[in-house]
Amino acid sequence: MKKIFAIAWKDLLRSTRSLFLIGMAVVAPLLITALMFFALGSMESSDSSALPQIELGIVDSDQLPAGASLENSLGASLRQALSGEDLHTWLHLRAYSDASAAQAALDAQQIDAVLYIPADFSAQFMQGAQPTALRVVYDPALTITPVILRTLLENAMQSMQGAQIALQILSAQTQDPALSAAAAAQYADWSAQAQSELAAGPAWLHIVTPASADSSSQPSSIALILAGQMIFFSFFTGGYAMLSILHEAEEGTLARQFTTPTARILILSGKFLAVLLTVILQGAVLLAAGRFFFGVNWGQPGAIALAFGGQMIAAVGLAVLLVALIKTSRQSGPVFGGLLTAMGMLSGLFTTNINMPAGFDMLSRFTPQGWALTAWKLALNGHATSDLLLPAVVLTAIGLALFAAGAWRFNRRFA
Amino acid sequence: MKILAITLKDLQQVLRDKRSLLFLIAMPVAFTLFMGFAYRSGSTPDTGDSRPVLVWDCAEPSAAAASLRALLESDDSIKVVERQDATQSTPAGTLTVPAAFHLNSSQANKSLTLSVDETTSAGQVLAAAVRNALLRLASAEEIAALSGSAGGDSAQAYSAALDRWQSAGEWVSFEAGSAPAAWYGSSPYNQASPGILVQFTLFGLVTSGQILMQERKTRTLQRMLSGPLSVWQVAAGHSLALLALVFGQEMLLVLFGQLALGVDYARQAAAVLLISLTLGLWIAALGLLIGALARSDSQVVLFSMIAMFFFAAFGGCWFPLEISSGLFATIGGLLPSAWAMTGFQNMLIRGLSFSAALQPALILSAYAAATFALAGWVFKKAGE
Question: Which of A328, B52, B64, B245 has the most C-beta neighbours closer than 10 Å?
């Protein structure tokens, strides 16, 4: 037993001295989590500063008809509204004199969308007819920008529609142009106030989140991202720590160890133990970093222990089998990089915040990483320790089976 | 000739390792399919009525509640069902309306509850539809009040305003800008295929970087440099091999995208070739740099993986940069991987002409030249 610990301790020291392993085990998962956190920050934030910066081109052909009572055309009023104080931090307008110049700017991605205001917009509005619709052409590679612009412009159009309805009804009823114009102006003031009140959330409209989707009862995105990365890199770390056997075999030091009186099974056991300790150390650092840097509440202690333990056993088991199967340390790059990344993706480790089709959820049941993610999701959701028994048992069984297959292969290889 | 000899030697070395080759081709194919499914899962189904369903929960509808219901039903973006019919569909939200509901009444009688998950797109559509309907109802009441103060018939004004709102047409239309013939942005693979192509050509750096590493480890590089070959000839020989590998990998993935996934690379084949070639040049230069910088096989893997994750995530290969926050999008937009994505998207999603590939190709070439110069310098140092 003493010899096993001595070998494990030597390998563990070697691992902790390796900048490569530290980079892959700790720095990479934290870096990717932070990257994803900043990248997707705008999707979760309600702060307007997190909105995408939108460059909107405008081709305003609207002409105020002769003798109109309005001071400016509706197109000009709309442009003024869109360049308001509350929008200028994220909405930037660029005026174009003709459609071809605007289209060229759109094709060159200098702007995200073009708003075309037709020449007869004001005239038709004042006649009480439905005006020729404003036209917005947007960059088809964009997904959020068109949605934001739609909301913004539909709200603006709703105000104008309301003003037109008010003006027509009041004119028809009072038959007094001055009186109806004054009432329409009153309506315009009311409309602006009503829109801002409704946007701010009036006391009489309660928007509640259903319990099933209540984010306060669900783990934060960052917790899920970090859990996914922790699982992905723990399997990576296990594999690379296990590679020390292959390195020693290539350098000839393993053969020298086998000539000593120490039994081969003890040497291999020491190496397996070192991998387990390395993976435990890595997991502990990531759990602590998640708690202190990202404020992740990992769940109940018992649940954490089961998820963590199951993941460790499965990671070591897979590492032993993979290293037993590859022939040279050179093959480790593509095999670990490719296979573990593929298994990670199939297990949903990179899509923890996306609702994947049911088929993928089923696929994840065939990978140890998928079961580890299930366990961590349960722990992060605050489930009781007993709820994690099934994934922990499955992970342990997978880990032991992989370990047995790998150890058998090693025995044959070094017999 | 000597440069070509080095190139052929490198290619033979890589092609000999069948297992690594399998990963360079099979993995990106699997990932493209995977990411395509992931993107598709976020979109609405193509067939049937995909409008989000709002459950109308009102035990005793007042006149105002009936008007609100009529306004909601006139909105084409949602479907309204009664509570008892909700089991036949999957509702996105429920609007609970109190008995004797009226906007101008006491707080209790106008207190509405909308139960909806606004983090989903269906939830956002429902919430916007309810706000719109409420605004229109309030507008009708305001017009009625103004009519009353101006001596008109307020009841008639209210009814006329509601009718107008219910029949109100669209005052603003939206369309995706594209080439006149067709819009190419309808498939999720238009993002997934080039995204994974860029990511996995970067992953190929592992294999190519390891060859250079081996050469340094076995002192072959120093032996070559002691002969009549210059550092630049050796670097050019290796770079050419890297370029051939990366370009070959790109072409296989382009073919897979075209034939299996319906991604229309062939529409502007020359532009796709130009982007692929300049991307290959930059990645070959990066491979040379990594091979010269790394001191062990493990470091080659580490540097390659960091490069892959960094350039893929920041360059918009996993998701469009538009959805990321300001600083991230700004920095990401400057990276060569982002320019490669822009070049591919100009052809696949924006449906633009060959000329739209020139700017991305020029910028990728500039990145390739700068990286190659740096790699050559490091390579020279490594050979000394």
Answer: B245
